[in-house]
Design a protein that fits this description.
Blueprint: H1 9-19, E1 25-32, E2 39-46, E3 49-55, H2 58-72, H3 96-107, E4 111-116, H4 133-138, E5 146-152, E6 155-161, H5 164-179, H6 191-205, H7 208-219, E7 223-231, E8 238-245, E9 248-254, H8 257-272, H9 308-318, E10 327-332, E11 339-343
Antiparallel strand pairs: 1-2, 2-3, 4-5, 5-6, 7-8, 8-9, 10-11
Helix pairs in contact: 1-2, 3-5, 7-8
């Protein structure tokens, strides 16, 4: 169907039958024709009324019978539900994060999201007494709120929401309001600067633990994380993790092993960044004779039925240009109806 959100005739018949407390019955009456062009006849019974319809498949015949039934039935129909309001109030259901990605690309400044630790919850242990403990523990749940930091160029924005995605949308909306009226920067930085910035951006998207392992791998030094202390009651544990990278050591504390490991990595990174840069070793170029291509398959007639991804890669190879790069910008929608936005 053209619109995936539009209900099929069979779905509408089911709603009608439920409203009237009856069961719809579909019955295959006949099939005729050769194997490659069969025609099916289906009968639909709703209460005391029946309809027949034909189709090139059983499903199509069922839908055709359902459409007839909807047009001709005398049964009372349920009142249609009003359409849901668009959550983001954006035309075309474009989420703020997708809109911001488009604006950030125009400006040449990537939008980088960093999850922030949740704000500290007040310590209720001091208020506990045995008389009110039941009420405090079981009737006062603290809703979890997610916080996100968004960086676009030199600007920073903070968002919060009930889910991580909602927090990203909140931060993106704030960024859109601030950046929409600002002029797009004209001058791009020099080649030397872009290299440094791109490395920093790449590191910003990685976790601190990954960056520690990468630095250690480049410098050929061992890395180890070890939980050295565990304290506190079962519901409020505190962990201390020690990280050792060669001759450097650091400790981090948190209410989970993962958080303490992350904080230890953040602490040791401060020391590792002080190390002198590694010397750049130029790899010797390998000289070999390329076999000349006898046929360049770049003609418009060639590859009509081919996968477009393979076809585009083939055209680029024939032109001796870089292969296409694909980047996932965003995803949205329900789990069974995901929609993805890709950039090539």
């Amino acid at each position: 169907m053209a619109n995936p959100k539009e209900k099929t005739p069979m779905c509408l018949v089911n709603e009608l039958a439920r409203f009237n407390r009856i069961q719809p019955q579909y019955k295959l009456l006949n099939e005729r024709g050769p194997a490659h062009a069969k025609m099916f006849t289906v009968q639909l019974t709703l209460g005391e009324q029946t309809w027949e319809a034909e189709g090139s498949s059983i499903k199509k015949a069922q839908h055709a019978a359902a459409s007839k039934a909807l047009n001709e039935t005398t049964l009372p129909k349920p009142t249609p539900r009003p359409p849901k309001n668009n959550v983001n109030n954006n035309p075309g259901s474009i989420t703020p994060t997708v809109e911001l990605n488009g604006l950030a690309m125009k400006r040449g400044e990537p939008a980088i999201y960093r999850p922030l630790d949740p704000k500290p919850v007040p310590n209720y242990r001091a208020n506990y007494n045995f008389r009110g403990m039941y009420n405090q523990r079981y009737h006062c749940p603290v809703p979890k709120i997610f916080y996100v930091q968004l960086t676009v160029g030199n600007s920073e924005f903070f968002g919060e929401g009930k889910t991580r995605q909602a927090a990203r949308h909140n931060a993106a909306m704030k960024a859109l309001q601030a950046l929409q009226n600002e002029p797009i920067p004209e001058k791009l930085p020099q080649n030397g600067e872009t290299g440094k910035e791109s490395e920093e951006d790449k590191d910003a998207n990685k976790s601190e633990i990954s960056v520690v392992f990468e630095i250690a791998l480049k410098r050929n030094i061992p890395v180890s994380f070890e939980v050295i202390k565990e304290s506190g009651p079962p519901h409020m544990k505190s962990f201390v993790t020690r990280v050792t990278v060669g001759e450097f050591t650091a400790e981090g504390e948190g209410n989970s092993k993962k958080l303490s490991k992350k904080r230890a990595a953040m602490a040791v990174l401060q020391e590792l960044k002080k190390l002198p840069p590694l010397p750049v070793i130029e790899k010797p170029k390998l000289y070999f004779k390329k076999r000349p291509k006898t046929i360049l398959k770049t003609g418009p007639e060639y590859g009509q039925g081919m996968n477009p991804i393979s076809r585009l890669a083939q055209i680029q190879q024939a032109k001796k240009e870089k292969e296409p790069e694909y980047v996932l910008l965003s995803e949205r929608g329900m789990p069974r109806r995901r929609e993805f936005v890709m950039q090539v």
